[in-house]
Amino acid sequence: MRRRRVMVTLFVLATMLALTVFVPSPATATSSGSGGTNSVSHVGLLPGDIILGENPGTKSSKLVPGKYSHAMMYCGVVRSGEKYWDRTNGRWLAVGEPYIIHSTPDDDDSKDGLGYDSWYTRVNGGYENLLVLRVMKSGGVPLTDSERSQVVNFLRSKLSGGKDGYPVGPKYDYNWLRKGVNPPYYCSEAVWAAYKSVLGIDLDADTSPFNIGVSPDDLWHSQYTSVIAGEDGSSRWSARYGVCKVSVYVYKIHYKEDKDPWLKGAGEMYLKSFTGDSQYPTEEGYPGCGKIGRTPDGTWPRNGAGDLYWRKDFYSFVNYYRYLKIRIEAWEDDSTDGDDQFDPYQIVWSPTTWHSKIGAGYQYYPASKSDCIYYIYIRITWAYDPVGGGGGGGGGTPVVR
Fold first, then answer.
1. Which domains, and CATH codes, for the chain?
2. Which of 58, 273, 66 is nearest to 176 (CA)?
């Protein structure tokens, strides 16, 4: 086991060295779309929502760590009197047209780095697979319209008038090992910097080797993001019919056994939560920083069998027409021979099943397993009005905090 870990570490170090020495040119590595298409609708999205794109088998998909190779930020739709330059098509975006801001590498200086693009061209026309993420603040609080505007405006503020007044942004950042709030930016770094600078939310889930940089997958696996729309193969789902908020309260867990023999002392307990979209749940570890990839960086002690009162809330968004999963895993930290997992708590509900629970308040769902008993409360509420048009793009307005 130790030899295998050493070999993996050496391989990752070699990969990092290669990335440091080899600075790719736009012709050899690009995080922008090429060749793939999708039909995900912008209707139901809100400014500040994050879009992740993937084209399997392309150079960018192989160079960028993780499944997704590009990250973009949705800005809303162009309103009367606004002027935003569509740099790919070389035109001013039309009133009512949805658009994004993102950082891409390109041989053409007018298209390199941070800038605006049409949703239809660079999102629908750029990627085969797509995920749309919505950010939630700590404590399960949705962002306000003002906070969303501030996040988008942070990236807008990095653009300045170039030739003929067309906005020009900082050039693309090829140092993928870097993570900074100031430009230049690579794609996912720009999104991360906006949320970190404006709201103090760190979206980096540290899934990349040695927690260096911030990849699109880091944004996906963040405890602050939930998947609300997307397309993956033949599956496609839009946020146009609304987004709900799922609140899971872990009151206590009764542990029927101690998985650490008595010679090792008190058990060190922690939880992993996977809630929301059944295929792409929101991930969070507790206690500690909340990042699954670094769990545990905090534990709760427990001697022998008995109750542990967690009194912990987990939150996520879920698309109205998606299957809902609630999975809580109880773990016991053991630094000597690997961590031990207790039987997990899991519920998977079809849309028709969980729709009947919207607005019903907290409901009690205990579950007795062979080695522990979970005491769980679940509440489902509307997070965004499915018919409202606030926030830009027809996303509705927050109705439940």
1. 25-237 (3.90.1720.10), 243-384 (2.60.40.3510)
2. 66
